[in-house]
Amino acid sequence: MDAQLTIVDVTGSTNDDLLEAGKQGAPHGTGLAARTQTAGRGRRGHKWDSTAGNLLLSIVLRPRVDPAKYSGLAAVSGLAVLEALEKQGLANEIGLKWPNDLVARGRKLGGILVEAARDNEGNPFAVCGIGVNVNYVPAEVPDGGLPAIGLSDLNENVPAVDMLLDEVYHTVVNAVDAWADLLNAMEENAGPLAPVHGEYVAHLNWIGKHVITRSPAGDELARGIFKTVDTFGRACIEKEDGLRSFHFEEASLRPLGE
Length: 258
Known about the structure:
Elements (H helix, E strand, L loop, with lengths): L4 E7 L2 H10 L7 E7 L17 E7 L11 H15 L6 E4 L3 E4 L2 E12 L5 E9 L18 H4 L6 H24 L12 H6 L7 E5 L5 E10 L5 E5 L2 E5 L5 E4 L3
Parallel strand pairs: 1-2
Antiparallel strand pairs: 2-3, 3-7, 4-5, 5-6, 6-7, 8-9, 8-12, 9-10, 10-11
């Protein structure tokens, strides 16, 4: 891989910077990390607290797959971040929360934001933004969100953020490349998560638990048992009257009673 990772002291949003770079033709694997962001954001426009001491990274991705299958990138990237942390001996208590969070001890450790776009020549690309709490834990909890936790709360010896950045960056790009190769070897109608489905579900929190499903506005959509996530990334909830599936854009999950 010839693209490189650049680290800056401060920027508004690494995702915004790379969306613009991607439109100008920045190649697959172009990475940008910041010590601090002044306008960091998460899913559904939530503010992402980007104080110094944490991992703040975005990567331009141009996988050679149908752009309609870019919806698999968040799961692939989440698994890759877990793998990178595991290489550093840091992943023992960490799991994934559908659709795009890293969690530990019932708290939010990190998040992934994938944004798709087209460059000035009309070619599709995506920017994957990754935020992981390392040494600083935000106190503010978004509406309906989980309280935060940091890697330093889970482990006595956490490597320097720059070392983690390098590991996460390379692991994510390699995982996306492997996913694209596997997906292209499958039937055309294969779901975007098909190449990583078993591994993804195995790392998901709350499988088999009673959950409540809420809309972006906070309205209750359903209650039931979280059975699985299908290969198209939909959460499958077993209700008394049957199975219902929810796309990640229309719902979020919380354990019942929390």
